[in-house]
Amino acid sequence: MRNLPPLHLHIPAPHARPGEAPDFSYLTFPAPGATRRPAPLTPEAEMRDLPYGLIRVLAEDGQAVGPWHPHLPPALLQKGLRAMMLTRAFDDRMFAAHHQGKTSFYMKSTGEEATAAAPSLALQPGDMCFPTYRMVSFLIARDYPLANLVNQTFANAGDPMRGRQLPLLYSARDYGFYSLAGNVGSRFGHAVGWAMASAFKGDDKIAMAFVGDGTTAEGNFHEAMVFAAVYHAPVILCVTNNQWAISSYQGMAGGEETTFAARGIGYGLPGLRVDGNDFLAVYAATQWAAERARANYGATLIEFVTYRVAGHSSNDDPSRYRPSGEARAWPLGDPIERLKTHLISLGEWSEARHEELAKTLHEEVRAAAKAGEALGTLGQNPPPRREMFEHVFKTPDWRNLEQRRECGVDQ
Length: 411
Fold this sequence. Notes:
411 residues; Rossmann fold
């Protein structure tokens, strides 16, 4: 024992810091089409290699290859492309509005648009998504009104949440989008409970939930996994591994010890590791897991490997903790460019059509933003003050009544 070295505590550290060259050499991905696709109803014990591969469909030349190719019609691919492009245009406009003092807070989803747009189109009406941040493309893919997104961002009188939620924390039940919460881990358990209730009622609806890589280190994640496994809940549980949880890189949550998808093995759940910047791969994995859930085979854990191009939020400066060129060095590319290239390879798109659509969407966002600004921006023309007291208690108690009186709100 005397000859043993002293113990050493391992502290994970990112592979590159500001001022250094980006380094993704530690990531190894199989070629597009190389990961096998078992039948959705295959026993979990026979699929334990999948969490260590990577489901990829789109090759560098834009061709769709391999067993996970979902063979989607061009019209659906074009709808997905439009949703991602509109999301990026909307994000850019609202982020600029924050810098102009028109809103209090914003988060961009740049580089992660496919992880929400593709599942939005793959799920069925009545299914429920329990989202994390950077998932506005889910709503946009379902034609949620831009006016609602703008007005909530500005917290004006047209805000569909009536001033009760922060910008970005959308809620749209009719669009299958459960209320987003700042403490995103809580929604994982809610999704499992919702799915259990659907099964208990004998319904045919499933749930899909998202957390970031950092949230997998929290108890909420593991509690939800236990319930999903034990009760065979019809739910798809997703980890958006965008490499950074605010300023903590994914290794702090155990991402370098094994894949996040591999965590499903310990719970007896199949795990899929998916190229999150490949629209077709994301759609195919969602479709596969949904088929399994609807057949009463229970939950699936999916890790979407992607990259958070922008800062965590408008309050974050990523240049303080990662190299400035890291986004350009990300080996899985840009989801919009990759889907555009695929559509062009099919003869269903062109650079000219892409540029024209980009201009059209820019004007669409501009018009929606101008309409919202006319109604009011941060601190101007907010929802009526009485709104904050409504829908708090079924029958207002004395505290609620006293607070209304102090604020000068009529009973």
